[in-house]
Automatic annotation (TrEMBL):
Keywords: Acetylation, Calcium, Cytoplasm, Cytoskeleton, Metal-binding, Repeat. It is found in: Cytoplasm, Cytoskeleton. PROSITE patterns: EF_HAND_2. This is Calmodulin. Plays a fundamental role in microtubule organizing center structure and function. Component of the infraciliary lattice (ICL) and the ciliary basal bodies. GO terms for cellular component: myosin II complex. It holds the Pfam family EF-hand_8.
Length: 175
């Protein structure tokens, strides 16, 4: 749940063709394909985030074959193109999260960059994580934050209200 709320994506996992076909059929009520304007909706239903530029490109390409509908084989091509694009733009979660850790230690624990560099700590306060996730970027709801804290307590090493940051990152990557 938490990763859906993080501002950056992990490398996407390929959606199996059978799953793509099942979702496609839900939108293909008449058996003639999905409506052109539904390409983005069906992709989002599969967990894919095609850009507006990609969707315009897919729509223009599909319109050359049929002005109203997109057939499954063409849609599957667009899905693969979208997945390839997402993979090319994926980020190194560990590296990105290390920046978050330094920020937490600097702003909440009031440690200087020199202190962080010379005496790195492996933990961050759970309360600081809660504050950050509830107030910065795409804010998490109180319920989502509490669910995240339960997951942290169930699967990460904790001591004195602080979570082992490597465990926290592993938890994010497992989701």
């Amino acid at each position: 749940h938490l990763l859906r709320r993080c501002p950056r994506r992990l490398p996407p996992m390929a959606v199996p063709e059978e799953e793509v076909h099942e979702v496609f059929k839900l939108f293909d009520q008449e058996g003639s394909g999905i409506k052109m304007k539904e390409i983005g909706t069906v992709m989002r239903s599969l967990g894919l985030a095609a850009s507006e530029a990609q969707l315009r490109e897919f729509t223009a390409e599909a319109a050359q074959k049929n002005s109203d509908y997109v057939e499954f084989s063409d849609f599957m091509t667009y899905v693969r193109q979208c997945q390839a694009s997402e993979a090319a733009h994926s980020v190194d979660v560990r590296k990105e999260m290390e920046g978050m850790k330094v920020g937490l230690l600097h702003f909440f624990d009031k440690l200087s960059h020199k202190q962080i560099r010379e005496s790195p700590t492996d933990t961050v306060k759970i309360a600081d994580l809660k504050h950050l996730l509830g107030s910065v970027g795409e804010k998490m709801s109180e319920e989502e934050i509490e669910e995240m804290v339960r997951e942290i307590r169930a699967s990460c090493r904790i001591q004195d209200g602080r979570v082992d940051f490597k465990d926290f990152v592993k938890l994010l990557q497992a989701q």
